[in-house]
Amino acid sequence: MWVVGLVGSPRKGMNTDSLVSQALSGARAQGAEVEKIYLSDLSIRPCGACEKRPPTGYCVFRDGMEEVYRVLEGADALVIGTPAYYGTVSGQLKLMIDRCNCLGEVVKGPDGGVSFRTRIAKRKRALFIWVADSSRDPSCALHVMRLWGKDANVELVDTLIVTGADRGTPARKRPELLKRAYELGAKLVAEFQEL
Ligand SMILES: Cc1cc2nc3c(=O)[nH]c(=O)nc-3n(C[C@H](O)[C@H](O)[C@H](O)COP(=O)(O)O)c2cc1C
Fold first, then answer.
1. Cβ atoms 158, 184 nearer than 8 A
2. What is the rounded distance in angstroms from the CA atom of residue 163 to the CA atom of residue 187?
3. DSSP states of 25-38 as a string?
C-alpha cells in the first residue's frame, strides 16, 4: 500500500508538517510505503480556467502538478494537512485543488442524460488534518476538500481538527495530538487492508 502525505504549510517541521509526519509513521508501522510531498516545493501555476483538453495529460500546463497527478493516479491513501488560512485551506493547497478541475468530466449517457465522472480511476481514502489557531470552525475547509474529492476520486474517511495550535505548547509538541495523528495514519492502512 502506498500512502502519500501532502503538506499544505510552507513551514517545514512546524505544526502541520509534524502531524502529517506522525500520521505517515502510523501508516508505515502498518506496512505501508510512505512518501511526503511539500506542496510549496512544487512549482504550481494557478488554474487558467482554459477549459482546454490537451491530447495527453490532464492540463495544458506542465509543472509541479505532474507530480500530484501521478500521486492521484497511483496512491492508495492520502494524508492531507493544511494550516487554516483565513478560515479555510492554505493558498498552497488551494493552488493544487484548483488544478484538479480538469479531472472531472460530464458525460452523456445513452438516454441523452448527463452525468459526472472523474478521470482518475483509483479511489483513494484520505485523512484530512486542519491546523488552526484562533479559528474554531473547519466547515469551510471541509466543504472545499469534499468538492475536490469528487474530481480527484478521494474520500475523506477521517479528519483531525486542531485548534489553538499556537497557544501555550504548540500543536507540534503536544503528545496527545501527535499520538492521535499516528493512530489515524495507522487506521487508514488497517481499514484498507480489511476491505
Ligand atoms: C496567511 C495566514 C492566514 C492565517 N489565517 C488563520 C485563520 O484564519 N485562522 C486561524 O486559526 N489561524 C490562521 N493562521 C495561523 C495558522 O493557521 C497557524 O499558525 C498554524 O499553526 C500554522 O500551521 P503551520 O505551523 O503548519 O504552518 C493564519 C496564518 C497565516 C500565515
1. yes
2. 22
3. HHHHHTT-EEEEEE
- Rounded Cα distance between 42 and 133, Å, is 26
CB-CB contact of 116 with 66 (8 Å): no
Could you tell me if the CB of 88 is within 6 A of ligand 1? no
> How far apart are the CA of 161 and the centre of ligand 1, in A?
13
- Paired with 115 in beta bridges are 107
Question: How is domain 2-194 classified at the CATH fold level?
Answer: Rossmann fold (3.40.50)
pLDDT per residue as tens digits for the range 179-192: 999 999 999 999 98
Q: Which residue has the least CA distance to atom 2 on ligand 1?
A: 85
Per-residue pLDDT tens digits for 121-177: 999 999 999 999 999 999 999 999 999 999 999 999 999 999 999 999 999 999 999
- What predicted TM-score, i.e. pTM, was given to this entire model? 0.97
Q: How far apart (Å, rounded) are the C-alpha atoms in residues 61 and 128? A: 27
What does the DSSP assignment read for 98-151?
HTTGGGEEEEE-TTS-EEEEES--S-EEEEEEEE-SS----HHHHHHHHHHHHH
CA angle 102, 104, 107 (to 5 degrees): 120
